């Protein structure tokens, strides 16, 4: 009986591990990282601000009052006012919705297009892989922000065109990531078996290869949202993104740059909003990487 006990314990542990599943195990590993939880908390806070904040602030985002221009933070205006007497807190709260909207949807576009190109390149190989890979290399040869500026300059300055530019410049990152994952997965036995029974390529790609390639995409996507928010703020600061009077954080920094010494709060609070949002996504992305990467388990 004593000899059977270790075997029974091993079987029980295997059954428990099987029941837990990889995603629940990843969630358990994510919760163990305090910095990742803090990052997720920051992201959740800004998401809540973006959803319900505009209904709670009392001042309108474009309510101007020249007698109240450049007032410091006070009980009436917690973050002070800008050069047109507008409440900075109200504009930052509304700007959270814009920044998160740009970050999320630009990354979704990058993931969809980049993943499709990466899957095709990795699965079919040969001249298809060469053509797509060289396309990625050409795009990566340009600094991302300069390429985004060039795209917006061609399309015209606007928030929508800034979103398109940010989505385009991030396509190669996801494409190369998926391609490398597909190159390793397509040699696995279950893919060979699927081909052997006559399964069509489209079904193999979308039912087997794509789901097993999503872990690194999730991590990269989380980090890319932070980068997209920074890039959107940079384009807004340069006058190539959101246009006045839209309360986009980068545009707010641009409008306040002349008052850095006389009214520093006009730049400090939008800058803190950008910094905290980017920090939250970066911390959460690092936690997801540690939880989803098998090489980080030990």
DSSP summary: helix tally? 13
Low-confidence stretches: 4-8, 11-19
Basic shape: elongated
Oligomer: single chain
Taken in chain order, the helices and strands follow as: HHHHHHHHHHHHH
Helix content: over 70%
Keywords:
298 residues; 13 helices; 73% helix
Give an overview in words.
This protein is an all-alpha fold and 298 residues long. The chain is 73% helix and 0% strand. The protein has 13 helices and no strands. α3 crosses α4, α11 (214-237) runs antiparallel to α13 (265-292) and α12 runs antiparallel to α13. Mean pLDDT is 82; it is low at 4-8 and 11-19.
Topology:
Elements: H1 4-20, H2 22-32, H3 34-56, H4 88-124, H5 126-140, H6 144-155, H7 159-169, H8 171-185, H9 189-196, H10 201-209, H11 214-237, H12 249-256, H13 265-292
Helix pairs in contact: 2-13, 3-4, 3-13, 4-5, 4-7, 4-8, 4-11, 4-13, 5-8, 6-7, 7-11, 11-12, 11-13, 12-13
Give a concise summary.
It is built from 13 helices and no strands.
């Amino acid at each position: 009986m004593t000899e059977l006990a270790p075997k029974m314990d091993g079987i029980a542990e295997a059954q428990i591990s099987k029941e837990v599943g990889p995603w629940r195990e990843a969630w358990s590993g994510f919760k163990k990282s305090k910095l990742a939880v803090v990052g997720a908390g920051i992201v959740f806070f800004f998401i809540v601000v973006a959803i319900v904040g505009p209904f709670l602030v009392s001042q309108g985002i474009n309510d101007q009052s020249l007698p109240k221009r450049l007032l410091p933070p006070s009980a009436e205006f917690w973050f002070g006012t800008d050069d047109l007497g507008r409440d900075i807190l109200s504009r930052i709260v509304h700007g959270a919705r814009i920044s998160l909207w740009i970050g999320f949807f630009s990354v979704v576009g990058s993931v969809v297009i980049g993943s499709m190109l990466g899957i095709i390149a990795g699965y079919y190989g040969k001249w298809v892989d060469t053509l797509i890979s060289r396309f990625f290399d050409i795009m990566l040869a340009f600094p991302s922000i300069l390429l985004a500026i060039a795209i917006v300059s061609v399309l015209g300055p606007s928030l929508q065109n800034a979103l398109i530019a940010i989505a385009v410049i991030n396509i190669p990152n996801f494409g190369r990531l998926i391609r490398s994952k597909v190159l390793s997965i397509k040699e696995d036995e279950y893919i060979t078996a699927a081909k052997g029974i006559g399964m069509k390529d489209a079904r193999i790609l979308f039912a087997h290869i794509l789901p097993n390639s999503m872990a690194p995409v999730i991590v990269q996507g989380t980090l890319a949202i932070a980068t997209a928010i920074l890039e959107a703020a940079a384009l807004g600061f340069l006058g190539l993104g959101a246009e006045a009077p839209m309360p986009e954080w980068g545009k707010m920094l641009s409008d306040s740059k002349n008052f850095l010494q006389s009214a520093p709060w006009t730049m400090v609070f939008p800058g803190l909003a950008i910094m905290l949002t980017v920090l939250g996504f970066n911390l959460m992305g690092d936690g997801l990487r540690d939880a989803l990467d098998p090489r980080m388990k030990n």
